[in-house]
Known about the structure:
Largest sheet: 2 strands, antiparallel
Low-confidence stretches: none
Helix content: 55-70%
CATH architecture of the largest domain: Orthogonal Bundle
Distance between the termini: 44 Å
CATH superfamily of the largest domain: Tetracycline Repressor, domain 2
Number of helices: 13
Radius of gyration: 25 Å
Keywords: DNA-binding, Repressor, Transcription, Transcription regulation
Strand order of the largest sheet: 1-2
DNA-binding region: 101-120
Organism: Amycolatopsis albidoflavus
Order of helices and strands: HHHEEHHHHHHHHHH
Domain HTH gntR-type: 3-71
Mean pLDDT: 84
Domain HTH tetR-type: 78-138
Amino acid sequence: MDAAPYQRIVAEIRERITSGRLRPGDRAPSTRQITREWGVAMATATKVIAELREQGLVDPKPGAGTVVRSVRRKREPDLSRDRIVRVAVEIADADGLPAVSMRRIATELGAATMSLYRHVGDKEELLHLMADTVAGEAIRREPPTPWRACLEYTLRLLWTVCRRHPWVAEALSMTRPRPMPNLMRYSEWVLAALLRTRLPTEELLLAHLNLFGHVRSLALTWQSEAWARQDTGLANDEWLDGHEAEFRRIVGTGRYPALDHLTAQETQHTLDQTFEYGLRLLLDGLERRLGCP
């Protein structure tokens, strides 16, 4: 997805600052200058200035407008893309993806917020680096050769990554995949296994996307559940218990006989069980499509 206009302007001004073309104490472009230079509305220009302040790049200065923030000269910690990504992963695992910001990471590292942009372009790039890192760390061996065993291994491994790090689901896209080397290994394994089935070429990508979609859709559900637990303090079964009476009242009207039958069984399934059942259905269907006995 293309960046919003204000984000592109912020990125350009940030590049001027990090490259030294705008130095500490220099006047940053005013809202009026932004409207003229980039041809945007005053509301967009105001949003640009607010975002630059949020990122710790500029400060308001009475009588001078907005100026590039002056940073006290002190020894900066040794920074690298790897350190930034690992701290971001720790924050996301502990507090969720919304808690990840350049300012929070800089605070954890004891660095200036601006210094992070020398290694990571923006939060979107950071998210993809985070996802690719944890996906790579999960890989311990190559998958087995038989096509079904290979698919089971690969998809279960990706599901494990999403279970350990619920925020990873946001970095996975079926329609706009990003070039991420470790996650591309998963795709390579799936496609290589499908090639061994002699599935018609025109169906390879369709099969791959359906298998991938099974993992991602449940991973997004798992992410939502993780957020809900964090926000409410209630596990899924505790939340259901709190709404059981209202469900039974509606079902008891007689308008929902199938739901009434299911509710009477009092069966519940975990997302792990749902994942395994769906994976088995997909692979059984693929075997039938291939004419396997």
